[in-house]
Structure formats: structure tokens, C-alpha cells
Here is the input.
Amino acid sequence: MGEAARAQPILALRDISKAFAGVHALEGASLEVLPGEVHALLGENGAGKSTLVKIIAGVHQPDAGEILWDGQPVHFPTPLAAQQHGIAAIYQEPALFPDLDIAENILMGRQPMDPTTRRIRWGELYAEAGRLLRSLGTSLDPRTRVRGLSMADQQMVEIAKALSMNARVLLMDEPTSSLSLREVDELFRIMRRLRELGTAIIFISHRLEEVFEIADRVTVLRDGRYVGTRRVSEVSSDQLIQMMVGRTLTTLFPKQEVPVGEVALRVQGLTKVGVFSDISFELRRGEILGLAGLVGAGRTDVARAIFGVSPADSGTIEVNGRPVQIRNPKDALALGIAYVPEDRQHHGLVLQLSITQNVTLPILEQFATLGWVDRGAEQREAKSWAERMEVHAAGLWQKVRELSGGNQQKVVLGKWLATRPRILILDEPTRGIDVGTKAAVHQLMSTLAGQGMAILLISSELPEVLSMSDRILVMREGRITGRLTRAEATQERIMAYATASLNEVGTAAGSAASQ
Amino acid sequence: MTMTPTASGRTAAREPSILPTLLLRWETLLIVLLLLGAVGNAYLSENFLDVTNLFNMTVDFMEKSIIALPMALIIVSGNIDLSVASTLALSAIVMGVLFQAGWNVWLASLAGLAVGALAGLANGLLVTRVRLPSLVVTLGTYALYRGLASAIVGDEALSGFPDDFTTIGQGYLPGTPVPVPLAIFLVLVVPFALLLHRTSFGRLVYAIGSNEEACRFAGVAVDRIKVILFVLAGLMSALAGLMLNARFGATRADVGAGFELDVITAVVLGGVDIFGGQGTILGVVLALFLIGELRFGMSLNNVPAQVQTIAIGLLLILAIILPRLLRARSGGRRVASA
Amino acid sequence: MASVTERASRPNLLLLAARFRETGIVVVILLIVAAVSLRTPYFLTPDNFRDILLNIAILSIVALGQTMVILTRSIDLSVGSIIGLSAMVVGLAVRDNPDLPPVLALLMGIGLGMALGGINGLLVTLGRVPPIIATLGTLSVYRGLVLVVSKGQWVDAYRLPAGFVQMSKSEALGVPNLLLFAAAVAIGVAYFLGHTRLGREIYAIGSNPTAAQLAGIPVSQVLFLVFVLSGALAGGAGVLWASRFAAVANDTASGFELQTVAAAVVGGVNIFGGSGTVPGVLLGSLLLGIIANALTLVHISPFWQLAVQGLVILLAVVVDALISRRLQRALALRARRMAPA
Here is the structure.
């Protein structure tokens, strides 16, 4: 247990407000961090956690409120200013230089140099970098070029960088999202070591288990506002969820029971070297098949293979009983498959276009005779879908970039439903949207299944998977490690399959089944 | 759909009328500049406002204008083509050489057009198949194509084109003061404008320029569209080359040298965002006339061509800086922050 | 404690690839040399070799400046015009003031180049104009200014003082000054890029501009600097050009920027920035020079030069793209295979 000895917080934020283009990301948010503590920052997507962290890191400036460092008011106009105070930030996307080696990445701008000639002392550079890496317990060679390093290794480099800056506060934005379980353990070991050295760590996560495992205190934000701070030892998971969400879980997900029809999609032996292997399953009409697993398990890759974005190397796909070749999304669309992507803004929408134009993008030829677009027909179609999805907007002509996350997701759903699919793949469909829209999306899924749609639901949210799926597949490291029916499924069993090592799959299945 | 109902009770599917005027703001500025330029030129030389002179003025930039049409589409799609003037030269030279070798002038012209299309195809394939950025590819073909023209004909000039061919560059529509090159351009403007603004193809060009990835995910044939755009550019460059041959009655390897500057300047000045996703044909046409008027005015005042390029270069730079400032103030962001 | 990320020191495929690149150029050079010397024995003579080196000296100097710009993920298309303008301004100055010491003339050229490059830098940093457009614009403006400055005249050999012309021709230690200048620049740039913090920051900016910003690197200032440096080298090269060819025309060095980009790209500089070496650029220039020389000796018309340059650029980027894609795939596969269960 770390020593949070001094009562004086090293960093305090009071009443911080920040708006982007009129949209409030933070309103009156506060945070206090003691030296030598691991302080978790919890909240749903859009709660303002990332914005707060970026303000601390000097990337953004607050519109209102104050920042106190060791009790003194400070101002971080640039990331450099924050760094000079001893704040280091590690983001979800590692901010490294792929063409340069690890040592240069760690010490960029601070390479040891001869004071007179200003020549870099390479020997010292590599020695220093090596020392930092070894102190973290890794045997990475500092001369290795960063390009090609795994996410875990890249994070290690980032931490070494923070160490080299003698960071007193370390910000970590969802550091575990791309790590395997063993790598997460490593990371936590290092975090504990840093805590012992007196470093304060602010740690954003959406995984409650991790918060309970590593954090000393936790602050919850909701809709950009400060909800409260608790000692981890004095709070329960349900209480935290209550603080994050503002209502209890049970009302969120409607159940659905539908008669299940014939096989719409059959996948056998699907393999993409180095990504996933031997994926086989059936998806029936009227059924929702949940695909669970930790981030990086390969679920999105399987979906993208089925949809033709990055086809598999081997294996077969059958749609409605016939073997098919899906080389690109157009092939998939022609077969009645639609894929609602994980990354809404980069893959799902063309932000500069209007709602109408986004909704009709995949089906544009239907409104064009010899190329000429019938705008009236197009608008009628878009309007019908926008109404069905209950998109809240001033008008169909509005650019989607101006819509909220929830409404944007509704547009994406409308777009894909407009292609009249028979097989719908949803990849994290409720990530980053408000609770009301979430419920609406779940309702929609139920309705669609009731109408005979075959749905593959990829989700990292266990409660969602559990309540929406008729059957659940669990993936880990590119393989299916577990198959559960709705009756058999529990959070623990899914987690067991999601985290089991391959040798243990048999035993894990055995022990899970016996629970 | 929860939308603000209009007075008639129907929900608004079309945007309110304020927006079109906002859209036209850049084009309005161009019109104003065009008029100011006309006033300035008329003040500086009395010959300017003569109708015949004005029509004749357009002849000088019709070849560039024709190239600017597909260039606008290419830039809207998020790409660029630096090789247009070189394709122009290659096509012009091939046509000239074939004609001198005894080919019928029209067949030779067809061959020239084919060369242009092939040159564009090569650009398109390098960009889509090998996945190279269009900047680098067209920098290479900029050299390669003109180099080939140069290799074929050295520094000689080819001439002797028959009169019925040279009318394309030098003639007028019968009974009117309208020069044939202007007529050709006007005939081409309409299909290009319709293509970009009213067809599914044009919509997809905008979409690709805004977010290519999302288009791929939506099953859009992104690669095919890009290749078509480059082929169009090659074709129009070749046509421009033929028109130059007709206009001068002769051709050389350095024909059209530096055209790409004017063309890109016109497109950017016309309001097309260099990063893609925005712009109109109307704006480009206005910009073309603005530049043409500027050059004409300078020529009337005996400003040498090389010095004229100073003005064009400055115009290109200003055409980028000004919209930046305008857009920054109206709060438009390309991608919404998470 | 055994680490999760334990691995033997990687043979570092990327380092291998870089060496492969330079070895590749050397191999191509040797092949061409072999092929041509079979046709023309004159090719392998020291005189010819000296000719080739002299021909590429100026190219190398400017290509190194271009390289620094490309490393930051930018491009400078105005170098040809900067050479021309510098050559004309300094040429006229020297013609009208024959007592002007050549060294001063050189400094004038460098100073002018720095100013012109500085304008590019301001456009890119303050004006936020994309480098391709900014330098396309200044390419025209500067070229136009050449004509304004010269008022249409040429500066020819009879007018330039002997001392000035000798600057590039005379020898020290048996090596022509021109080559010494080029060597000095090469050593200077190599040291700057390879052994100073600022030089390493240039690589960083091209490798990941956002990360560079977050790391506290003053990106705008560094960008401004590289354009100033590129301009300075081009300006100096302009003076050397005037000295070497003893004449300046209005279209001097027109189109030269293309050769500098070709030399860099062929030499393995990544057009997206972040990687590239001085030896690579020198080899790239050498390859271009050898090709040009070979074409002349084999009696292929000089009109093929431009086409060959274009072809060489295309080949270099295509080959690079294909290889690097293979490499990326291999690396990704490796990383995944070695990830612990």
C-alpha cells in the first residue's frame, strides 16, 4: 500500500469548465490528487475524463476554474509547461516516433549532450535509456526502433519517458484497453512501484475490476460534472455505477424472446494469419449472437473479414446456405450483410455531409437514374429512417458533425438499416452514447430480431452482452474460447473464457460449467 | 423524427434559405473581384471594354479552363494532379508527330486523346493499386510525360496543321464573335457541373474527399472513382493540348509549360478546399475568368509573362490563407472532437 | 524477474531495411557503371568520374536542403527559383562590382536564400499554407522576380570577373573547390541531423507530428528553420551555379527542384518524413549524375534526361512502397506471434 502521507494534494483542479464549439465537455469539474496515490477517474464515455486529463497535460486550456500545484495556482498553456512542472501523460494512442529508436523516444529533446559542442552523447543516451528500461523490469533493447513494437511495449517506453522526466504526476488514459491480462499485471506492478516512489498516478479506466485492484481513491464524473470522490476500500461496485450512471442497471436493457429461424450466416474455419484462427459459428434469423471478449481479442477483425473490409486468408463463409466470396464491402452489401463499425466518426460517418447524404451513401444508386440523383426520393428515404430512429436534429440537411454522439449513432444505424440487410453486425453499438439512446438501440435490436434479422453483437460491456444475446461466443487472442447459451452465461464465466490461457480453456470451461 | 416543424406543419427536409447565401459568399466575393478587375482594366486601357476584345481575351485561358474542370473534381476528392501540363504536352506532341507522319489530322487527334487518357490511367493505377500519394505519383509523371514529349521531338517545332483543324483554336462560331475555344469550354462546363453537383458520382467524389475510409466501409467503389477522375484529367489535358496545337498552328515539347500553376490556382481560388470535400464548379469558373482577366490586363500593360506569374503565385497563396481565416471565424471544423 | 516483454535483441528489420536501401542504390550504380563501361571505355576514366562529381556537387548541396524539409513531412518546390534568383542577383552585383570578393558574393547568395526560405517558412507556419502550395506559389513569384531583377538581360561569361568564376573552378589540395563546398555541406548536414538535438527533432516531427507537439518540440520554429536552411543552401548553390557556368539566364535552374526531390527520394528519404540519411541522398545524387552522364556517353539524346528523372522517381517510390508494405506486414505478424498468451 502506498504512502499518501502528506495531506496537501500535489495537484488540485477546482470548478473547471471547458466547452468545444458550444458543446460543454466539462462544467464545474474538480479533482484532487495526493502524492503517492493511484487515483482512478471513472465515468461513462463523454463524461469528460479525457478532457480533464488533457487540461492537466496542457493540451487544452480551461475556460473557467483553477489549477493548483502544490497549493499554488498554475497555468499550463502548452504541454511543455505541464511537463516542466513534472506532469507526464500517456494517452491511449502512444505518442511515439515510429522511425526512431526507443532511447531517442524516451529522451527526445533531453538527450545528454556535450555542453560546448552540443553534440549528443550517444553512449550516455543508450546507457540512460537502458537503465530506465531495466528499472521497469523490462529487457527491451533501447536501440530497437519503435515501429513494430507491441502496444504493451510501446506503453513501457512511454512510462520510461515519464520516469526520465521525474514526473510527479503521471496521467494514464485507458492504458489497459489494448493489453493482455499478463501485460496488465505487469503494468500494475510498475504503477505500484511508481506509487512507492511518491508519484501520483491519475488513471482513467472504464473497467471497474481494475479500479478496485489498483486504485486508492476514485473520482467519478458524469456529463462533465463532478459527482464525488471515494476511497476505493469504502465503496462498492454498485455504488460506483450508480454514481456514473445516475440510475440502476436493471432498467437499461429490455429482454427479448423470439422464435429462431434458419441459418443465415455460417462461418467455418475462418483464419487470418496472426489475427484470428479457426473461427466457426452459425447465426440464425431472429437470433442475437453476442461476441464477447477483451479489447484486442480479434472480434472486430472477424467482423471486418465477414464484411469484406479485410478478408480472411482461409475458411468459408456461407450466406443462406450458399458458399460466398466476400472480397469487399460491396460484395457483403449485395449479400444483405451490414456492418455498423466500432469507430463511428472515422468509419461510420462522413461528418461534413448531411444526415440525408450519410443515410443514403451505401444505396445511392437506388436514387440515381443514369447518375442523376433524385433528391426528392432520397430525402423521403432519409426522412423515413431518421424518424424511425428518432434522430433529434433541426433538419435532415444538418451536417452530422453537429449532432451528439447518440444521434450520430442513430444516423449510422439508419444508414445501415436502409440497405435492408438480413444480417446485421453491430460493433460496440452503444459505446460513447447517452443512456437514453442506449435503451433505444437495445429496443431496436429486439424489434429487428423479432422481424427475423440475424444479429451479431460485438460488445465489451458484459451486462449488455448478457441481456441482449441468445447465445454468446467468447474470443481471446484470435480464437473462440467459449460458447454459452443465455441460460448458462454469467459475467464470471464470460470473463473466465475471455481471460483463460489457451491451455486452460478446457479446465476453464470445465470449472465455469460447474459453477 | 423530432424536428422543428415549419409554419406549414411539415417537417423541414430542405434546409432553410439562409444557407444558400452563406454558401455563395465565396462566389460572391469572386464576382465582386471580377467586376473590380474589369473596372480597373477599363481604367487602365480603353481597349478593354470592347466586346470583341473581351471575347478574344477568353481564348488565352480556355485550355487551362478545360483542364481546371477535372482538376476541381480531383482536388475535391482529396487528391492532386501535377502532371496535367505534361500530359497536355505529350498528347500534343504525339498528335503532331503522327500528323507529320501522314496520318489524317483528326485520327491523329484521336490518338492524342487516347494518349491523354492512358496517361491519366497510369496515374490512377499508381495511386490506387500501389497506394501511393497522388502528390508523389504526379510529381514523377510530371517529369516523365513531358520528358517523353521532349525525347520524341527534341527542341523542334512541328507545324503545318490544316485550316479546318486550326479553326478549333483560331476560329469563331459562324456569325458570332464567340471564339471556338470558348464555345468548347462552355459546352464542357455544363456536364462537369452536373456531374459534380447532381449525380451520384459527384456526391461520392465529395464523400471520398471528406472521409475516404467511411466510404470504403459503405461499399463505395473508391478506387474506381479515383481512376476515372485521373483518366478524365488526362483526357481534358489532351484536349487542351490539341486546342493549343490548333491555336498556334504548331507544337513543341514545352507547350503548356507552367499551366499546372494556373490551373491549381484557379481551382483553389474558386473555393475548392485543398484537402478535399468542398468546392463548386461555379467558383472555379469565376476564378478562371478572374485569373484570365488579370493576365489579360497585365498583357495589355506589357507585363511580361514571367512577371505575370508573380501575380498568379501571390494569388495562389492568398487564395489559401484567406479562406482559412474565414472558416476559422465561422467555427467550421473538419471532424468533430470526441 | 522475467519480463512479459522478454525478447532477444531484435535483429531490427528496419535497420536492415535502411542498409538494404543504400546497398540497393550502390548495386544499381555498379550495374549501370558495368553496363555503360562495356559500351564506352571512357566512362571509367578519372576525368569522367571527376566530371560526374562536379555535375552533382550543386545538386547534392540543394538536395540536402530539400532532404531536411522532406524529413519534416514538407516539401520545397521553390529551390529552383531560389537558385535562379540568387544567381541573377549576385551575378548582376558581381558583374557591376568586379572587385567584390567572391566570398562576400557567396554570403550574399546565402543571405538572400535565407530570406526567401524564411518567407516559405512563414507561409507554412503562420499562414498554415500546406508546403506544396506555399512553395508552388513562391516558385512562381521568385522566378518572376528573376526577370524583374534582370530586366530581361542575361549575365554572360564575358561580364563576370575571373575571380568569381574561379571560385568554383580553382582547386585546393587537388580537389576542385566546388567539391569541397559540397563535402563541407554534406558533413555539416550529417552532423546536424545526426548528432544535435535540433536535428533529431526534425526526424521526430516528420515521424509523428502530433507526438512532437506533445513532447514539447517547438514544431513551428523548427519548420521555419528547415525552410530557411533549404533556402540558404539553394541561395549559396545559386552563386556557385553562376560561378560554375559563368553565365546566368532568366530560366537558370528552372525545374531543378524536381531533381532535388528525385535525389532525395531515390536516396531513400521517406516522402512522408521521419527517415532518410545523408549518405543515401549523396548516393541518390550520384545515381542521377551517373545516369545523366551515361545517357550522354551512350549517345542517347539529352532530351531523355527529364523522362529518366521522372521514371527514376516513380521506380524509387513504387519499390519503396512495395517493400515497406511487406516489411510492415512481417513486423505486425512478428509482434503478434511473439505476444504472450
